[in-house]
Backbone:
């Protein structure tokens, strides 16, 4: 059966009857409490309102009277006044009216063990201002019962008239629910029900809205007078006690003209295989089961009850005429042990104080004497079911019914030091599922709360803290608390170390400002990883540079080191590549290289380009100079002479410069006119003179070059002049061919350029030879005897007149 419990008040449908509806006034001198009724009967599962009001003098001894505390209590054996709201058995079921001078008490979800005498008490700010209203209100809680008001037997079935009622008559009109063999009988809403029944049918009833509190099931006597009647179908008993399950049975005195005799009768429990096994033959009940031997009385007695005795018990009898009958639905026996309930607790600096109660979910009829134990030792003189005392966190308490000391309650005690376990117990990897479990030995069972170090609020409640996909940020120290009504304990820290692959590396360069050639430079790579990552530096399109702890060091960086770098961060869980880091090395210009263009034959009067280039960062600026001229001839890489003439002869040098330095290279350009006398005599003389001059110049240059070479070969380091460069002079030649009539080809003399006085270092000197061809004869080839450089650069200028 299932249903929803509904709280109905006395003013509505609370199933409450005031057996003595008389106002009762107690007190004197202005102190009084009025109960609307002193005896109330209510049905199990309903809500009862015990109406009450009180008055007190407004002043006493010149002081204004104030009510500091008011509460309801029940009569306990030791006479203590315990507020109902602090007692666990009334938890969430008791409410007090908050209006002034109204002390009405409401109890919901009534249970049969709520039957008691209830009294109201209030305490004022005066030392003598305490008042308890006697005799109080007697509350009786009862359940519904099915009564068989009429029964008729027929050949194939029986007919019965049933009534759902209680010892507390229910005021007003109510709707009922009827059950046959546990199933709801649709359409039946009256408190009476009539129907044909069969031998195994059972019936119960409930008030609609309170289906959770039905009456016990009743079995109707069977066909031909065969039947079994159970006084109650549900019984609760305490472990160690003896229970009687009342039962009676009937059968016809004769059947088919023969006298009926009962040949066998026994009790059995429902087994998985459906067999009917006599309890007296079962070893677990040996010596503990008795059947009543009187005729038609089938009462079962079980002594020394154990919790495993909880079961459904059924009676069966067999007659001499083959008739046998089983009483359905049977009796459900629930065996429970004693429990110590903490009804009140106060915490002090050095110890705690508690009020304990020894009870069971099965109320014990009559008055009993109890035994109390503290840390396993009998507390002498304690015979009540309640006990109050100071205790320390390590103390434990238990109780027993006197005479049944072998069946004490479990001990109650505060939590022991909690332990924390982690699953999996091996390495924890980011993204995996991880469970932390907190456990503590405690009774009542402990409530658990999880915390993380340096986090101000709790993470969660419950014995387990679950990370479905743990993150690296979840690493840290964790702990839990275990708490019950008798105390609280905190576990030790548990460190969770989450392993994970490297995160995206960050790269940096030191210094972060401009990097100058020759300086010290560090490249640094860092990545969040657990365990710590290993790093490898790479230069783009090259092999790894080195494995390191994150830094790569240039003690003296060079221009060749410029480029893009990146690092690889890795551990056993993965690897990741950083973004590229550009290293821009700044340096002064390298020695410039110079060239003449075009390199083929150049016609006099045409354009000639002198080009200068140098490796530099930042890019170099270029300036061209001619020796013995104060101002630059040109700026830029290319110096263009648009109309080449003999007067353009001389030393030219280019200077490459940026903010990191400067370098020079020199080019020696000689333009000589060579004329033959194929025309006017003046032109021939000029040609002859030119030939002689050219020959003298060529011989002078040749002798000078040989002398210099000889000097270099013979002189040691100490004999060298300070202005002479140590390296081989780099020569370049340019020849300009001027064709003037039919003169023989002439070659320009070549001489070394004089070093500039303002230069601090020896500059490279490059030469350009310009040839004027004043005739039609073929130009002479230079031989080995001329002493000229075979790698000379030639340019030819043709002058045709």
Residues:
């Amino acid at each position: 059966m299932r249903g929803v419990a509904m709280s109905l008040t006395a003013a509505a449908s609370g199933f409450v009857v005031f057996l003595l509806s008389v106002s009762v006034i107690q007190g004197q001198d202005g102190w009084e409490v009025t109960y609307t009724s002193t005896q109330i009967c209510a049905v199990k599962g309903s809500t009862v309102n015990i109406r009450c009001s009180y008055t007190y003098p407004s002043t006493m001894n010149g002081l204004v009277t104030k009510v500091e505390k008011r509460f309801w209590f029940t009569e306990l054996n030791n006479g203590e006044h315990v507020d109902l709201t602090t007692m666990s058995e009334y938890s969430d079921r008791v409410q007090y009216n908050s209006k002034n001078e109204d002390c009405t008490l409401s109890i919901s979800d009534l249970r049969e063990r709520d039957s008691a005498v209830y009294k109201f008490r209030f305490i004022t700010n005066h030392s003598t201002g305490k008042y308890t209203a006697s005799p109080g209100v007697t509350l009786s809680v009862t359940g519904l019962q099915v009564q068989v008001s009429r029964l008729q037997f027929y050949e194939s079935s029986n007919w019965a008239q049933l009534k759902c009622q209680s010892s507390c008559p229910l005021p007003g009109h109510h709707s009922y629910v009827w059950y046959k063999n546990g199933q709801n009988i649709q359409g039946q809403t009256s408190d009476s029900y009539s129907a044909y029944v069969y031998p195994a049918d059972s019936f119960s009833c409930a008030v609609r809205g309170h289906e959770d509190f039905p009456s016990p099931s009743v079995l109707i006597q069977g066909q031909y007078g065969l039947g079994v009647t159970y006084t109650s179908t549900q019984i609760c008993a305490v472990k160690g006690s003896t229970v009687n399950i009342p039962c009676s049975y009937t059968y016809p005195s004769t059947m088919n003209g023969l006298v009926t005799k009962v040949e066998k009768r026994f009790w059995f429990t429902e087994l998985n295989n459906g067999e009917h096994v006599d309890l007296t033959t079962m070893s677990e009940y040996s010596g503990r089961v008795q059947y009543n031997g009187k005729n038609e009385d089938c009462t079962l007695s079980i002594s020394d009850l154990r919790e495993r005795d909880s079961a459904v018990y059924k009676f069966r009898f067999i007659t001499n005429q083959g008739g046998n009958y089983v009483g359905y639905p049977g009796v459900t026996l629930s065996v429970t042990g004693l429990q110590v309930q903490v009804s009140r607790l106060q915490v002090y600096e050095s110890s705690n104080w508690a009020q304990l109660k020894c009870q069971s979910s099965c109320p014990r009829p009559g008055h009993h004497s109890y035994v109390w134990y503290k840390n396993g030792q009998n507390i002498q003189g304690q015979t009540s079911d309640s006990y109050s005392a100071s205790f320390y966190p390590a103390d434990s308490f238990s109780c027993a019914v006197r005479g049944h000391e072998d069946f004490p309650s479990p001990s109650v005690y505060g939590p022991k030091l909690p332990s924390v376990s982690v699953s999996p117990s091996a390495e924890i990897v980011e993204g995996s599922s991880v469970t932390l479990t907190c456990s503590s030995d405690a009774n009542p069972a402990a409530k658990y709360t999880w915390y993380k170090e340096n986090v101000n609020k709790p993470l969660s409640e419950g014995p387990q803290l679950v990370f479905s996909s743990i993150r690296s940020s979840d690493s840290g120290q964790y702990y839990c608390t275990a708490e019950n009504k008798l105390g609280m304990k905190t576990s030790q820290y548990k460190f969770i170390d989450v392993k994970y692959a490297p995160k995206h590396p960050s790269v940096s360069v030191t210094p972060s400002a401009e990097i100058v050639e020759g300086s010290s430079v560090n490249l640094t790579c860092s990545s969040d990883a657990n365990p710590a990552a290993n790093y490898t530096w790479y230069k783009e399109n090259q092999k790894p540079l080195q494995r390191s702890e994150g830094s790569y060091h240039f003690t003296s960086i060079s221009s060749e080191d410029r480029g893009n770098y990146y690092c690889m961060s890795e551990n056993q869980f993965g690897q990741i590549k950083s973004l590229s880091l550009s290293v821009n090395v700044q340096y002064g210009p390298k020695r410039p290289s110079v060239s003449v263009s075009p390199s083929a034959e150049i016609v006099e009067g045409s354009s000639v380009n002198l080009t200068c280039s140098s490796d530099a960062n930042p890019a170099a600026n270029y300036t061209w100079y001619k020796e013995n001229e104060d101002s630059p001839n040109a700026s830029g890489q290319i110096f263009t002479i648009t109309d080449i003439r003999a007067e353009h002869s001389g030393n030219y040098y280019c200077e490459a410069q940026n903010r990191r330095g400067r370098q020079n290279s020199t080019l020696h350009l000689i333009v000589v006119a060579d004329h033959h006398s194929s025309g006017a005599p003046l032109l021939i003389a000029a040609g002859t003179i030119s030939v002689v001059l050219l020959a003298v110049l060529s011989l002078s240059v040749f002798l000078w070059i040989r002398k210099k070479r000889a000097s270099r070969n013979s002189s040691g380091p100490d004999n060298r002049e300070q202005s002479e460069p140590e390296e081989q002079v780099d020569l370049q030649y340019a020849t300009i061919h001027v064709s003037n009539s039919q003169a023989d080809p002439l070659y320009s003399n070549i001489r070394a350029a004089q070093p500039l006085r303002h230069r601090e270092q020896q500059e490279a000197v490059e030469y350009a030879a310009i040839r004027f061809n004043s005739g039609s004869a073929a130009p002479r080839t230079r031989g080995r005897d001329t002493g000229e450089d075979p790698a000379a650069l030639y340019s030819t200028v043709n002058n045709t007149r």
Remarks:
- The first strand starts at residue 16 and ends at 18.
- The radius of gyration is 60 Å.
